[in-house]
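Input record, target 12 of the design panel.
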């Protein structure tokens, strides 16, 4: 059974959000720990913001792709809603403490 372009995009979106973000955060954990324990903590903060912007960017890109394929689909609407919710929560949590970016993404993903 071949997947339609919309379902394939939704599958990539789901895998990225449910597995990809957690793996990326796990791979970068030692880097974050090292950067936050060294003197210039702005390096860790910068990497945190790059991490969040990358995650939000991938979600926006996949949501826009789904919107171009079929703008009225429920899958597209769910992807857009998830992108907005995760972006807002990541920004709100990171405003309190930059390290909370990873924690907020873990909460959103359910890791």
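The sequence produced for target 12 reads:
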């Amino acid at each position: 059974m071949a997947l339609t372009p919309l379902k394939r995009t939704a599958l990539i979106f789901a895998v990225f959000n449910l597995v990809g973000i957690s793996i990326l955060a796990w791979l970068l954990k030692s880097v974050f720990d090292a950067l936050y324990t060294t003197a210039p903590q702005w390096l860790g903060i910068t990497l945190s913001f790059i991490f969040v912007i990358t995650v939000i960017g991938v979600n926006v890109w996949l949501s826009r792709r789904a919107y171009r394929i079929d703008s009225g689909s429920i899958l597209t609407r769910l992807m857009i809603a998830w992108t907005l919710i995760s972006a807002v929560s990541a920004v709100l949590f990171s405003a309190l403490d930059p390290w909370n970016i990873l924690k907020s993404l873990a909460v959103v993903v359910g890791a």
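The chain has a mean pLDDT of 82.
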